[in-house]
Amino acid sequence: MNNSNVYVAKLGKAVGLQGHLRLFIDSDFPEQFKKGAVFTTNRNLQLKVLEYNSSRELVKFENYEDVDTAKKLTNQELYSTIEQTKENCKLGKNEFFWFDLISCEVFENDLKLGKVKEIQRYPLNDYLEITTYIELVNKGYPKVFLIPHIFDKFVLNIDIENKRINVINSFDILENS
After folding, report:
1. What's the pLDDT at 116?
2. Is the pLDDT of residue 2 over 70?
3. Which domain holds residue 124?
4. Which regions span the lipid bilayer (predicted)?
5. Which of 52, 63, 44, 62 is nearest to 25 (CA)?
6. Residues 53-97: pLDDT tens digits?
7. Closest of 30, 25, 23 to residue 7, by C-alpha
């Protein structure tokens, strides 16, 4: 998939005879699976949602309205574009899209600690995976470390426009990694 696509879900097995598929959502925004929404699969198929049942976690797509055609979609991954994601998913205060956080530079006071490489999801919190700034690596610090994505305790503010994240208590994490 190209970089402008965002992984949102995986399709499971067909359920019933009318083309419904189990939907395993890997997104914080289930509302994006509304009727008429279009997704691309990892096999470059365009799928348009006919029905979505959030309580049963089932989805049905246009032109896949019986069990035999729906079975062909089993185990495929669904992707949305960044533009669709921004349009269909509304963020609250101190909420950011992961794709906006990746490649942001991380600073504690004026010390550049590194750049966000990836977001890691663990049961209690999400973590920013940081590729340590080369000058710090040359001083013996690890090449990669994790910062808990917790506002006020570790993350002070995020400026997506300038690709900058200001943190606190994170140099200590780097030193002890």
Report:
1. 97
2. no
3. 98-175
4. none
5. 52
6. 989 999 999 999 999 999 999 999 999 998 888 888 888 888 899
7. 25
CATH code, domain with 39: 2.40.30.60
| H-helix or E-strand spanning residue 101 | helix 98-101
**Whose structure tokens read 């995986």?**
10
Final residue of a structural domain among 70, 88, 106: 88
Q: Is residue 93 part of a domain?
A: no
Instruction: Give pLDDT, residue 1.
Output: 46
| CA-to-CA dists, residue 114 to 21, 139, 141, 173, angstroms | 42, 14, 11, 13
| Tens digits of residue pLDDT in 143-172 | 999 999 999 999 999 999 999 999 999 999
**Residue 145, SS3 per DSSP:** strand
Q: d(Cα 119, Cα 45) in Å, to the nearest integer?
A: 27
The structure tokens 């019933």 sit at: 16
